[in-house]
Design brief:
This protein is mainly alpha-helical and 95 residues long. It contains three helices and no strands.
Length: 95
């Protein structure tokens, strides 16, 4: 039991001491850190990864909603039939 405890303590000590090296955090503004990555937050020329994911989510949402409209057009469900000689009440949201 004491051997297991000493192994755990030794492992925890090594884990704690191994993280005490040179810091490479986001706040590192040394010349070497800046010259390695001149644009860390930018994915393309003017857009960040976050903006890119947000734009893709909006586009996917629009495409999915348009797919429902296209499906209704394929099955001719987007407006009432014009073949009847009788007046038909409009079922669309447009006045």
């Amino acid at each position: 039991m004491s051997t297991l405890r000493s192994i755990i303590v030794l492992g925890a000590g090594i884990a704690l001491l191994s993280g005490c090296g040179k810091s490479t955090s986001i706040g590192d503004v040394s010349y070497g850190a800046v010259s390695r990555n001149l644009s860390p937050e930018v994915n393309g020329l003017v857009i960040s990864n976050y903006d890119n994911r947000s734009n893709n989510a909006v586009i996917d949402d629009l495409n999915e909603r348009m797919l429902h409209d296209d499906w209704n057009r394929i099955w001719l469900r987007d407006k009432p039939s014009m073949l009847t000689p009788y007046p038909v009440v409009s079922t669309s949201r447009d006045p």
